[in-house]
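[09:14] KT: can someone run the structure on this one? pasting the chain below
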Amino acid sequence: MGSTKPTQLEILKILKQNEGNFVSGVGLAERLGISRPGVWKHINRLREMGYEIQSQSRLGYRLVAVPDSLAREEIVPHLKTQWLAHSYHYLRTIGSTNDHALLLAVEGASHGTLVVAEEQTKGRGRLRREWISYPNRGIYLSILLRNPLPVRVAPQLAYIGSLALVKMLYEEFGITASIKWPNDVLINGRKAAGILTETQSDQDFTRFSVMGIGINVNHSREEITGPFRYPATSIAIEVGFAVKRQRVLLQFLSQFERDYDHFLQKGLSVMLPEFEAHSEVLGKIITVVCGDREIMGRAQGFTPEGALLLLREDGLQETVWAGDVSHVEGAV
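[09:31] RB: done, structure tokens below
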């Protein structure tokens, strides 16, 4: 899974507890019941994972720097959630975190299981569009949710994910982001994150849902400039410096758990005013692609179930349950 072994975890824990100070190699060997060459082997493995560890004769080892990794040992000990991500699956490279989470779901993985990767080679968004997943730049994750929901309610999960992300960006970085219905998060009109929810259901209720989220965190302008469907940005571009992805992930997970629990208790209708307050499309002239149709009109609001209310040019109001907003008036 790309994570560390128990002995390496223990060595890392000891080095962190003594951060800035040297830890004797002999002491580590005695404490862990292994040989000194065994300690050296594990230290080298940690170095390969990006941990900067200084070694000095007679003094031992000292942890100098920790990589910006999403590995278990950098996330799980700092979780503030009650049920989310305590089952944590970390992969350096994967085709798609959603595909892996769906497989785990079929195998019986628990509610709140999280799959996170440093890189996706087959990441995808809505309508199976490609999602560019540069290694060690973004956050690519999937959350397994097992609460049975009416099938018509399941699409609302994307709203909860986007709302949680927008709130986290403001609280942690002072970034005012917006939600482009139904599943994109924008900063200054440019796409910073996308959400893809996939559900397995019986006739009336979901068996489980997997919510995949891709967040542009430390991407440079060059990495996200290209023939993309929408102009893109990243958190680092917006704040002007690289940010710790661990911080972004941990704070998002806490915010999402709070919003998801609120959603289960109260329903989407109670959260709609907050969702509308962050909407990128509300009050604007937009074009929505619905299958073979293109509908143009002014976005007036959302139904309690999350459908988009569109006032067409002919003066008629249309309720749009699913679609892709291809143009927003005044967009970049």
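[09:33] KT: thanks! The first strand starts at residue 52 and ends at 56.
[09:34] RB: yep, looked fine to me
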